[in-house]
User: What shape does this take?
Amino acid sequence: MGSGLSVDWFDEKIGQIRNRIQNLSVKWALAAYLLLAFFAAFVCAWFIQQLCISRCNEILYPYGVDVYREQITGNIYYAGTEAVMYLLSERERSELLFLQIFINIIPWILTGCGAVCAAVIFYRKRLRRPCEILKNGAAEMGRKNLDFEISYDSRDEMGQLCRTFEQMRREVVADREELWRRIEDQKEINAAFAHDMRTPLTVLRGYTELLYRYAPEGKISEEKLLSTLKLMSEHLKRLEDYTKTMRQIRSFEEIEPQKLQITLGALRLRVAEIAEPLNAVRDIRILCGDRKDLYGDKKDTEEEILMLDESLFLEVLENLVSNALRYAKSRVEIFLEYKKEMEMLFLYVHDDGPGFDEKERMSVTDPYFRGSRNEAADGSDHFGIGLHICRVIAERHGGVVNAANGMDGGAFVSVSFFCGKS
Assistant: This one.
């Protein structure tokens, strides 16, 4: 048991030392590699020199001469008479001269080789992998591919460089996602702008046709004429304000309700004013009512004061009516209900069309959702954004959108608005 613990402790210490070496800075790591190389070169040079001296002794020993090497200058000295040198053969003298030169230059040769080997090993161990990682990352970014990750587990300068490169990649990805989000927001704004222009323009066209049809015949009183012109002016003013708002915001999330006081009766009158011209230009009848038409009772009064952004409410109404008219066969019903204890206003729009596909009903408020529902009764195309606009506006106004199928068929959509002061 004691031996096993000792081995584990030794392995742990080796691992700690290895991690410390791995996390050394590049300059200190290079210095360590060079020192180890120079030490190895010194040991090898000393060992080779001893072999050379041994060889010299083998040559001169028969002549009674000992060879030794001075450690300071590196020169070879012979202990004995120098006259013996003349007794050596030419080959022996050449070999001795070569060994003396070799003994002097071998340390420099090994030092140079050690430095080269240290540099190569240092590159392979500390630089090659991070350089390849950075090179491959730069190549991927050059191909406009950001779906990769740069990971190099080291605290040295190369590790810091890799982490900086990875941070840069993430920032580029974040910037690209933000750019795409802005493009999608702008696309949504443009689609919403085009979508929301339809119903107000249809309302104005209805008023125009009403005046064009009945004014020349004198069937419209002066009071009715002035009232109609006033309503048209109000719709044009609202379109102008809406255009200005859409130009200033970058996404629907920036919409902020501007709540003002309005009575429930005045709001019902505004609903009727929108329905009237649409009835004049459509074969489909638009019926406006209240909760007593649904349940036979009426819990709200016309004098109830609401805190409501009328413009946003009318945007939701017009979108719901526009969708209902697109699929209705003959009738669209609009109902309002105000629950005072909850300070919530509910808008209901019901048509007698084909209704919602049950499998897709939960997705009808998604942007650009068109689904597999039957084609519109009037054959018109649509952006698939109307109910999404209603959902965003309702959420900004503290409410929600619910879509269902009516008990007698057709689509039934309810939108709630929080009408409190906060």
Remarks:
- The chain has two domains: 17-148, 179-418.
